[in-house]
C-alpha cells in the first residue's frame, strides 16, 4: 500500500487537508511554557540529543533513564541548568506526570515496547530510528500510535533536514525527470565498536553488534537512505535482494560488517545500498538519478548534474536553487546553495513544534513503519540469500 492509497483507505482527506485520526494533543500545553522531556537510554546517542535540547528554547530535559549506572550519571551530567531525576526503570519515569514527552534512544529491540508504554502513559514520543525491530514490534507500535492522541515522531532526520526537504521538492517538481534509481553508500574503516569499561558490559554497550538487540548496519545507517528513497517515491519497495557477511572483523559480532542490498519498487525504480566497515573511500553519498538529471547528496552539501550537459558553466539561475553563473565542482555537478541546519537539532525543534501545533510529523508512524518493515525485509533477504517480497497483510495501517 502506497502513501496515496493509505490516505484514501484511512479516510484522512478532510477539506483538502491531510488530517491523521486521533493524532491530537494529549493535554493542554501553555505555549509560553517548556516542553518537559524524559530521555530513555542515556548512552552516546541519548547524550547527543540531550545536549541539543540544551540549545532549544522552551524545551528541557527533566528526567533520564538508563539501566547502566555510569551511563545514567553521564546522561544527567549532560543536562545544563538543572539536575534531572534519574531512573533505572523506564516505567517509573513514565509515571512522572511532569514529563510531557520522551526521547527513546535505547537499543533497537526495546523501542516498540517502550514507545507503546509511553503512548499509553500519555506521553508524546520521539523514537530514534529504526522505529522497531521485527514485524511484531512494528505492528504493536502502529496500533498503539493510531489509538493515541499524542505526537509520535521517528528519528529519521532527513525529513527535518532543509537540504533533503529541498531535494524532495526538486524531485516532485520534475527537476530530474522520471526517477530511475538511487545509489547510496555509507562506508567506514574501523570496527564500529565502542570501548567498554569491563567485558561485563560488552553486549549492553556494543548492542549494535548482536542480533538480540540490533539489525546492525542496515538499521543504524542505511535505514536513513531507505527512508529517503521511500519518501522520494511516495511509496514502499516491493521486493529486496541482498548479501551481507561477517567477513573482516572476526571478533564475535553477530551483525554483518558489510551489506549490499537492492530494492525494487513497483514503478521500476531501483535503490541500492552499501555499507562497509573496512574501506571508507568517499564515505557517505547518495545519488538519485532521473531521466533528465541526477542529484548527488553528501553530508552537508548537494549537487545537480543535468543529463547530457557537458558545459563547464551554465549561465542563469537553477530555478532559485543556486547562484547566477554556475560552474561544476570537482566533477560533482552544479552546487546547490541550500540552507543546512544540523538535521537532528532541526528534528528536535520540529518535534517541539508538532506537539504545540498538533501537526503530524513528516517522519511519522506511517513512514517509520514502512522503513522498519523494509529493514526487516533486507535482513531476511541477506540471511537467506533469497528475494523477499513486501506483504501488505503483515502491515497494519
What does this entry look like structurally?
The chain is of the alpha/beta class. Helix content is 30%, strand content 22%. The chain folds into two domains: 3-156 and 345-364, 3-Layer(aba) Sandwich (Rossmann fold); 162-342, Dihydrodipicolinate Reductase, domain 2. It has helices at residues 3-9, 44-53, 69-77, 90-94, 111-120, 135-146, 162-172, 202-205, 217-233, 343-357, 365-384; strands at 13-14, 17-18, 35-40, 59-65, 85-87, 101-104, 124-127, 152-154, 179-186, 239-245, 258-264, 270-276, 284-290, 293-297, 302-306, 313-315, 325-327, 334-336, 388-389.
Low-confidence stretches: 2-29
Beta-strand residue percentage:
15-25%
**Element-by-element helix/strand order:** HEEEHEHEHEHEHEHEHHEEEEEEEEEHHE
Briefly note the structural class of the backbone: alpha/beta
What secondary-structure arrangement, pairings included, does this model have?
Elements: H1 3-9, E1 13-14, E2 17-18, E3 35-40, H2 44-53, E4 59-65, H3 69-77, E5 85-87, H4 90-94, E6 101-104, H5 111-120, E7 124-127, H6 135-146, E8 152-154, H7 162-172, E9 179-186, H8 202-205, H9 217-233, E10 239-245, E11 258-264, E12 270-276, E13 284-290, E14 293-297, E15 302-306, E16 313-315, E17 325-327, E18 334-336, H10 343-357, H11 365-384, E19 388-389
Parallel strand pairs: 3-4, 3-6, 4-5, 6-7, 7-8, 9-12
Antiparallel strand pairs: 1-2, 9-13, 10-11, 10-19, 11-12, 13-14, 14-15, 15-18, 16-17
Helix pairs in contact: 5-6, 6-11, 9-11
